[in-house]
What we know:
The chain is an all-alpha fold. 80% of the residues lie in helices and 0% in strands. The chain contains 5 helices and no strands. α3 runs antiparallel to α4. The chain is elongated, with a radius of gyration of 16 Å. It starts with a helix and ends with a helix.
Amino acid sequence: MKLPRPLLHAVRMADAVLFWPALTVVIWGELTSPEGQALLGLLWWINDKILHFIAYFILGAMAAAALKARRRVILAVLGLIAVGAVLELLQGYVGRDMSAYDELANIAGVVLGSSAARVIVQALRNRIAA
């Protein structure tokens, strides 16, 4: 089945717009206490590192899918890694524990999420070209 190019463009634009609210939710989640988060309170039985991985996997995938140029994707990945590091440092000032392991989970999530998204986007582009 051949995919129409305007459909892929529309999905990319929607992804680019929805990235910002997703980033806002992640920032909010990292800077507030788990007890005050109703959604994460229900999911707190999941290991904290897994939550970090999932959040940054989604952000990395969204960023990589929204951007066309490989250089921009690399810059977005590095930016997300930097955001994760800054948020970990800020957690020490808002009553949460800073953790290098959280940052490692963030990095793994961003790298794997962006890599997976690039593979999927390339497969979709190949379907358009075929």
